[in-house]
């Protein structure tokens, strides 16, 4: 579970003009009966540092650039205040536009959707995680979240969208596809979130992101409210923040570009020829039931290491870019459930994953740069 005592020691710095005061409890800010009830149902008892600061900032309708690690509670920092505002304001013009679109097409089920909030994420796994949280926080409300991502049946996603969409979670490539097909319009998007923004740039999504955000129909900065979340703050992210955000508040949770405060790090020098043997020693010491993530650099390396561990009697699975989406989701489900407590992964395939109860992360192959190490 979450170690709240360690969380309380994490330094947080908020800078910007007229920065709202942080909260100590979810009850310190009025997010309405539905949200407060769903927070309780989700068993959130105390806000994490990023939630303490981000929730009142977002509720104050300020733009936000937040630097915080995966696993720090970012999703529950932006979804509740956004959904709270949607509940307060209602669908407004977006609903009328969707109805008009349906009438033009002569059939209710073929109408174009105009989400009020858009959350962009780098990977389908992260998009699904955010979508699941959105469903929790929108429980017993009329707000309908949807998710679209590449590698899945687009027809099924379109049919789901046509049932109505107020909050859309999307990967950039699939969203561009949906917009080109005339299934999504961003004309009435009031709330824009870029989650794991540095990851999206690392994966080459900047052209798609700019195409989405800078199109004529998207409300301009200052009209919409924009929030960016990133583990690191390199120059490319600074430029994106300058272009997309208006008079934003900068929030730094922990040391920017550092690893999580809750992690103990160990470095062991091992000859290449001895790495497999040493990994077996580590796995033996940690126990076969402890969730362990092992990073490798190549797809071929992931397959080879999974096969080696299987032959050594370890229940393990792997994910990498050549695996089908169904295979990857099955592998993640087996890992989360503990059926296969060892997951061998390439960094690209594991981007944006936030899996609870992982006890050990082994860098079988070291990453090429410090940012990659921080994300792992």
From TrEMBL:
Any Pfam family: Helicase_C
UniProt domain DEAD-box RNA helicase Q: residue ranges: 24-52
EC number annotated for this UniProt entry: 3.6.4.13
Reactions mediated catalytically: ATP + H2O = ADP + phosphate + H(+)
Residues annotated as transmembrane: none
Short motif (Q motif): ranges: 24-52
Helicase ATP-binding domain mapped to chain residues: 55-251
Domain Helicase C-terminal, first and last residues per copy: 262-376
Lipid biosynthesis is among the record's keywords: no
One Gene Ontology molecular-function label: RNA helicase activity
Keywords, sorted A to Z: ATP-binding, Helicase, Hydrolase, Nucleotide-binding
Claim: Hydrolase is one of the keywords in the record: yes
Source superkingdom: Eukaryota
Matching Gene3D superfamilies: P-loop containing nucleotide triphosphate hydrolases
Family statement: Belongs to the DEAD box helicase family.
Protein name as it appears in the record: RNA helicase
Species whose genome carries this gene: Monopterus albus (Swamp eel)
């Amino acid at each position: 579970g979450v170690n709240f005592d360690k969380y309380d020691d994490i330094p947080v710095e908020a800078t910007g003009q007229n920065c709202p005061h942080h909260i100590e409890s979810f009850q310190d800010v009025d997010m309405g009966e539905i949200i407060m009830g769903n927070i309780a149902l989700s068993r959130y008892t105390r806000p994490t540092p990023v939630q303490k600061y981000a929730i009142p900032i977002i509720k104050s309708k300020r733009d936000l650039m937040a630097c915080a690690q995966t696993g720090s509670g970012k999703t529950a920092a932006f979804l509740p205040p956004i959904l709270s505002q949607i509940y307060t304001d209602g669908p407004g013009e977006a609903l009328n536009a969707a109805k008009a679109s349906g009438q033009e097409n002569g059939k209710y089920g073929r109408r174009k959707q105009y989400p009020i909030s858009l959350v962009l994420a780098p990977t389908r796994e992260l998009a699904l995680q955010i979508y699941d949280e959105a469903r929790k926080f929108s429980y017993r409300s009329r707000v309908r979240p949807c998710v679209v991502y590449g590698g899945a049946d687009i027809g099924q996603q379109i049919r789901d969208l046509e049932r109505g969409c107020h909050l859309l979670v999307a990967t950039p490539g699939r969203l561009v596809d949906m917009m080109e097909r005339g299934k999504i319009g961003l004309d009435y998007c009031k709330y824009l979130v870029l989650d794991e923004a540095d990851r999206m740039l690392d994966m080459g999504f900047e052209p798609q992101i700019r195409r989405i955000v800078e199109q004529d129909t998207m409300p301009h900065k200052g009209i919409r409210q924009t929030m960016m979340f990133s583990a690191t703050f390199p120059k490319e992210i600074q430029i994106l923040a300058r272009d997309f955000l208006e008079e934003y508040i900068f929030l730094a949770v922990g040391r920017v570009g550092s690893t999580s405060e809750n992690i103990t790090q160990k470095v062991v020098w091992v000859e290449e020829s001895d790495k497999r043997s040493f990994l077996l020693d580590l796995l033996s010491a940690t126990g076969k039931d402890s969730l362990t993530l092992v990073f490798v650099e190549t797809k071929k390396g992931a397959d080879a290491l999974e096969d080696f561990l299987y032959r050594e009697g370890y229940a393990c699975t792997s994910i990498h870019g050549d695996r089908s989406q169904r295979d990857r989701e099955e592998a993640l489900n087996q890992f989360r459930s503990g059926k296969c407590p060892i997951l061998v992964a390439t960094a690209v395939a594991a981007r944006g994953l936030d899996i609870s109860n992982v006890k050990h992360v082994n860098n079988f192959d070291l990453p090429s740069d410090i940012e990659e190490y921080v994300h792992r």
